[in-house]
Specification:
Number of helices: 9
Radius of gyration: 23 Å
Strand order of the largest sheet: 14-17-18-24-20-21-1-25
C-alpha cells in the first residue's frame, strides 16, 4: 500500500468563471460608509474569489446629509459593480445619523448610535429604510438590521434586548411594506457573554415576527466551538420560529500586530488560512445557510473612533484576505496583495461551487475506521476528527475531514484509513490549503467483501489540521486544472 504523498498529483483546483459561485460562502466589503478603503480596484479580485455573497453597510450618515434627501449614488455604484461581477450584495442597515441623534455628532461614522430616542429619529430611520428598499428593489433582496446590537461598541448607550427587538420589528415591517418578498435578517449578534439571555428576551418580545433568518458573528479562537454554539443558537431560536441561520461575520487576523477580536493571539498567514477553512466546514456541518468572512481587505476597526481625533481610527485590523498599508487618515492603501487565506478561500469556493447539501455517510461499523500510521493510534468513534459528507443533486459525493488540533500551537500531518459505503471508486483528494489535487491510487483502495461489496476501504490518506476533500466521481472535476 502506498501513502497518498506517493500518488500522482494531477493538477490544481481553480475557479472556473463559467461555474456558479458557491452558495454557502461570502465575504465582507464593510466600512465603505467610513471610507475605510477605495473599492474601485477590488472588484476583479473579489469576483475571482468565487464566493456568492458580499456584505456591505448601508451608511445612513453618508447617504442622507440633508434631512429628507437621500443620495444613494455611492451605494448604487457598489451594488451595480458587484452585480456586474456576478456577486450578490446583501446590506446591513446601519449606523446612525448626526442630523437626528445628538450622540452621533461626536462618534466617527455614527457607529453604535441607534435612532430610537425621539419620534423624529424613529420616523427618519424608517423613511430612510423605505427609500433604500425602493431604490434597490429588484437588485438587493437580503437586508440585515443593524450590527452587533448586543455589544456596547454598536449600541453605545447600553445594550437592551427590548430596545433592539422593537427597533428590529419596526424596521422589518417598513421594509416589507415596500417589498413583501424581501429576506430580512435580524440579530446580527456579536455573541456577547450573555447572548442567550439577550436573544431570549428579544424573541419573547416578538423580534422574529417579520424575520427570515438570524445572523451571528462568532469570533472563536477554536473554530470547533461553533459545533456546540450553533446547536445552542438553533435550539433557542426554534422555540419561537424556525428561522434560517447566517454567519454574518467570522474571521481572525493574519498577524498579532493589530486590533479587534482575537488580535492578541499568535496568528500567522498560514494559521489564518487554516482557520478560514475549518470555520467554513464547521458552518456547513451545522447547517448554516451561508457564511461571510470578515473581511476582504485589512482596514481600521474604528468602532470607538471620534470625529475630532484621527488617531482613534488607527486601530488597524489584519483580518483581510488582501493585505494593506495605511495612510495618515487611517485609510487602507497599497497593493492589496492576496494572503494565503485568499487562495485557500478560492480553493474552497471552487471545490464547493454551486449547490450541495451536507449529510452523514452511513455509520454501520466499522465505519469510520481511523488508523494513524505515524502514531499507531486507533479509533472507531471518529470523535478525534471533524468530518462531513457532501452531496450534489446529480448524486456526486465528497467527504471533508480534518484533525481539530489547537490551531494556534499545532500543525498536524499524518495518515488515516476510512471505510465507506456506496461510493464510487473513482476518487481524488483536494488539498484545500494548497489547491493541489491528487488521484487516489487503486493500491490504496480495497473492496471489503466480508462486509459486503458496497464497502470500500481507502488506505493511507493524509490527514491535516485543516480540511481535505476526498471526492467520489465528478464532484468538482470541472474546476480541476490539469497539469
Amino acid at each position: 500500500m502506498r501513502q497518498l504523498s506517493e500518488n500522482k498529483s494531477i493538477g490544481f483546483i481553480r475557479r472556473n468563471p463559467q461555474s456558479p459561485a458557491s452558495e454557502r460562502f461570502g465575504v465582507g466589503f464593510e466600512k465603505l460608509d467610513r471610507k475605510a478603503f477605495d473599492p474601485s480596484d477590488k472588484y476583479d479580485k473579489l469576483a475571482a474569489l468565487g464566493v456568492k455573497w458580499v456584505r456591505i453597510l448601508s451608511g445612513w450618515e453618508k447617504t442622507e446629509k440633508i434631512k429628507g434627501v437621500c443620495d444613494f449614488s455611492w451605494l448604487e455604484e457598489v451594488v451595480d459593480r458587484l452585480s456586474a461581477n456576478g456577486l450578490t450584495a446583501w446590506i446591513s442597515l446601519c449606523y446612525g445619523n448626526p442630523l437626528y441623534t445628538e450622540s452621533a455628532k461626536k462618534v466617527f461614522g455614527s457607529v453604535g448610535c441607534p435612532p430610537i430616542f425621539s419620534n423624529e429619529e424613529k420616523n427618519a430611520w424608517l423613511a430612510y429604510c423605505k427609500a433604500l428598499a425602493r431604490k434597490f428593489k429588484g437588485k438587493v433582496k437580503y437586508y440585515e438590521i443593524w450590527n452587533e446590537p448586543d455589544g456596547v461598541q454598536c449600541w453605545k448607550h447600553g445594550t437592551s434586548a427590548i430596545e433592539y427587538s422593537e427597533f428590529c420589528k419596526s424596521t422589518a415591517a417598513a421594509l416589507k411594506e415596500v417589498d413583501g418578498g424581501l429576506y430580512i435578517v435580524g440579530g446580527a449578534l456579536g455573541v456577547s457573554e450573555r447572548w442567550a439571555c439577550y436573544l431570549k428576551k428579544a424573541l419573547e418580545n416578538g423580534m422574529a415576527e417579520n424575520l427570515n433568518a438570524i445572523s451571528f458573528h462568532h469570533y472563536a479562537a477554536y473554530p470547533e466551538a461553533n459545533l456546540s454554539f450553533i446547536n445552542q443558537l438553533k435550539d433557542l431560536i426554534y422555540e419561537y420560529k424556525p428561522l434560517e441561520i447566517i454567519h454574518g461575520e467570522n474571521g481572525c487576523p493574519s498577524s498579532i500586530d493589530g486590533n479587534g477580536s482575537l488580535h492578541a493571539c499568535n496568528w500567522t498567514e498560514r494559521r489564518q488560512a487554516a482557520y478560514l477553512l475549518r470555520n467554513m466546514i464547521v458552518d456547513i456541518k451545522c447547517g448554516v445557510k451561508f457564511s461571510s468572512w470578515f473581511s476582504f481587505v485589512d482596514m481600521m476597526e474604528g468602532l470607538f473612533g471620534t470625529r475630532d481625533d484621527v488617531s482613534t481610527r488607527k486601530d488597524y485590523g489584519y483580518y483581510g484576505l488582501l493585505g494593506a498599508e495605511f495612510n495618515e487618515n487611517g485609510e487602507a492603501i497599497g497593493n492589496f496583495n492576496p494572503k494565503k487565506s485568499y487562495y485557500a478561500y478560492q480553493n474552497l469556493a471552487a471545490a464547493l461551487g454551486g449547490e450541495f447539501r451536507a449529510f452523514e455517510f452511513p455509520k454501520d461499523k466499522p465505519y469510520p475506521l481511523h488508523w494513524s500510521f505515524e502514531t499507531g493510534n486507533f479509533d472507531e468513534s471518529g470523535d478525534d476528527f471533524v468530518c462531513v459528507g457532501l452531496k450534489r443533486k446529480n448524486g456526486a459525493q465528497a467527504f471533508c475531514y480534518y484533525k481539530p488540533v489547537n490551531i494556534l500551537s499545532t500543525e498536524f500531518d499524518s495518515t488515516v484509513s476510512f471505510i465507506f459505503q456506496n461510493v464510487s471508486e473513482d476518487m481524488k483528494i483536494v488539498d484545500l490549503l494548497s489547491g493541489e489535487v491528487f488521484t487516489v491510487s487503486k493500491d490504496n483502495i480495497e473492496i471489503r467483501e466480508r462486509y459486503g461489496d458496497c464497502c470500500v476501504e481507502v488506505k493511507g490518506l493524509p490527514v491535516k489540521d485543516y480540511p481535505l476533500l476526498l471526492t467520489f466521481g465528478d464532484f468538482c472535476d470541472e474546476n480541476i486544472q490539469n497539469k
